[in-house]
Amino acid sequence: MSRSQELILKGMAQENSAENMTDGDDGARHRVRLPRFLVHESVGAGQVVKRVTSAVGIKPCDPCEQRAARLDRWLRIEPRH
To answer: Does residue 64 lie within any of the structural domains?
Structure first.
């Protein structure tokens, strides 16, 4: 895994706070389960896109926030147990 991938995954884990998490029924239509060494906590696809775009210097705007929320509801990336 490259250094940039490690930083992105580390940042995603830090962004996942209790306010973004629910008791497992978050209403996501699709779920992707990855090995625990890649993903330590559940994260929405919108958060992944937001983190990557911020890392390359793109500032989020209101439509970006709305798009991230829709992506979060559409796809969750979760660790395998």
So the answer is: yes
**Domain-embedded: residue 78:** yes
Residues 55-75: b if buried by 16+ CB within 10 A, e if exposed: eeeeeeeeebeeebeebbbeb
Averaged pLDDT, 31-56 = 86
Domain span including residue 65: 33-81
User: What pLDDT does residue 42 have?
Assistant: 86
Distances (CA, A) of 39 to 22, 25, 29, 58, 75: 17, 19, 19, 24, 14
19 within a domain of the structure (yes/no)? no
77 three-class SS? strand
pTM confidence score: 0.56
Q: Is 39 inside any structural domain?
A: yes
Report residue 35 as tokens: 């090995």
What pLDDT is stored for residue 17 in this prediction?
43
